[in-house]
Amino acid sequence: MLERPDGEMDVVTRWAWRLGCLLIGAALALVFPEANLWWWAYVGLVPLLLLIAAASDRREALWRTWSAGIGFFVVLHHWLAPSLGVFMVPVVIVVAAAWLPFGWAAWRMLRRAAGGGSAIACLVVLPSIWVVTEVVRSWHALGGTWGALGLSQWSARPVLAIAALGGVWLLSALLLVTNVAVALALRTQVPVGVRLGAVGLAILAVGSSVAFGLARGEPEVTDRVRLAGVQPGLIHGPGPRLDANIELTLGLDPDEVGIVDLVVWGQSSVGFDPDVDQAVGELLEGVADEIGVDVLVNVDARAPGGRISKTSVLVRPGVGLDDRYVKQRLVPFGEYIPLRPLLGWLEHLTDAADEDRQPGTGMVLMRSGDLVFGPIISYESTFPDMRRTVSRMGAEMTIVQAASTTFQGSWIQPQQARYEAVRAVESGRPSVLVAVSGTSAGFDPRGRELVWWPSDTTGVFVVDVPLSQEDTVYVRFGDWVPLLAIIICAVSFARFLARGWRSRSGHATAPEPGELSAAVSSSS
User: Fold this and answer.
1) Cis status, amide bond into 439, omega within 30 of 0
2) How far apart are CA 481 and CA 487, in angstroms?
3) If pLDDT is split at 50, 70 and 90, which confidence band does 350 have?
4) Taking the CB of residue 171, how many other CB atoms lie within 10 A of it?
5) What SS3 state is found at 272?
6) Angle subtended by helix axes 116-137 and 192-215, to nearest 10
């Protein structure tokens, strides 16, 4: 790097490096659909790690990290720009700050990774910090697991198989191990033996994942069902949208109706509450009676209590409106405004919700004939814990009703659909996502594609779904990977503080007060 004699870089040079980091972060976001450069996830952070390690001081390392985070989230969430307008900038800046702890630790550890113990510490602690950061970001008020690096491996079988062991978090941890290992191998300050050892550990981690996926047997298929998904396309207005769903459903080929076990409409397919509007209720019951098949609809309307909620309703022939599930996790600003008394003014400047929707409480199972399934509504598909809950309750599959008409034709639609492959592998259950205007998709318990209907396709698709109740490690033990990552981070930080305290107290001499890598290495 070009530096002044006193170690201070020229201002132009400094900002040039930061711009380079921004571009590195932007390139990393291309690992997700639609660009879908999944292989880049294994090395995409390496340039950033090297630039962080080469930073002249902690402040510059944090600037570079923050710049990369901004680039990543701008590309990842670019489809939000039309809705957020000028507020896209502060939102991205704030969210990107989540990467700062990772950048701080990477700067402290990588630049001092001269021994085997310190290299191992890098390979353990840095992935743990990254996972913890993703877990924090996955809080429902911050957007769910959207952008978790492990989701990029949705099509990378057999590596995807390890999601059954530790969920998307284990996939993210694997990717960080490979990135850190390659960064260590490229650091000329690190001894050759340590560099080769780091690469060897990364190869072992990836190889073990591949071996697990190849050796894993097929799930036990308990039954098969045929599901018909109705995708009417982008239709404005609750009346025309309801009419389109009814027309497509009643237009099913008689031969198809005879083999279909369940018909599913997308989110917000019914814009009138059938409990309030009796005519709509009778209309829905009439559709189910005419085709002789259960119909899962989604009501997005004001309930008798005065609040709007989004509710999955199972309509049965001869029975009428039956099982219900109310969406619990609402889209921040899209379906409610957090801290509305303080931030309510945003509804006048953006497409934020003009009133807060009413959330439901508790997951439910629905039964259609012999099929037991767990209903999930759109945004909720980003949360693996909800899928795990219905799996533990006894679901044989999950059905997602989605709608992203605000972002029609954007990356959000194929991303949401393809992430269902990861959710299916995590839960050991097949998953089918039916969207009002696309993209709809279905995956079996191994993440193999069963059906794919892009956003420019309308009509009704019929998919044969193999059912399973596989007891995956992730379903059984839950988020053990994030818990382990939190413990590793807590222990490492505690040793970092203790070492700094001992140094200041004169009880011990540390290479540098508060050197994290040395603290972790000493515990290895």
Assistant:
1) yes
2) 10
3) confident
4) 30
5) coil
6) 50
Q: State whether the Cα torsion 68-122-152-204 is positive or negative.
A: positive
The DSSP code for 8 is P
Distance between CA 116 and CA 204 in Å, rounded?
Answer: 16
Residue-number span of the structural domain to which 293 is assigned = 223-328+363-469
pLDDT: which is higher, 158 or 513: 158
Mean pLDDT for 297-321 is 90
**Neighbour count for residue 487 (Cβ, 10 Å):** 11
Q: Is the pLDDT of residue 6 over 60?
A: no
Per-residue pLDDT reduced to its tens digit, 138-176: 887 777 788 899 999 999 989 999 999 999 999 999 999
Q: What pTM was estimated for this model as a whole?
A: 0.89
CB 52 within 8 A of CB 99: no
The CATH number of residue 270's host domain is 3.60.110.10
Strand partners of residue 376: 400
- Which residues, at least 6 apart from 152, have a Cβ–Cβ distance to it below 8 Å? 31, 32, 38, 41, 175
What size, in residues, is the chain? Answer: 524
Mode of pairing for the β-strands spanning 397-402 and 366-368: unpaired
- What one-character DSSP code corresponds to residue 454? -
Residues 19 and 124 placed together within one structural domain of the fold:
yes
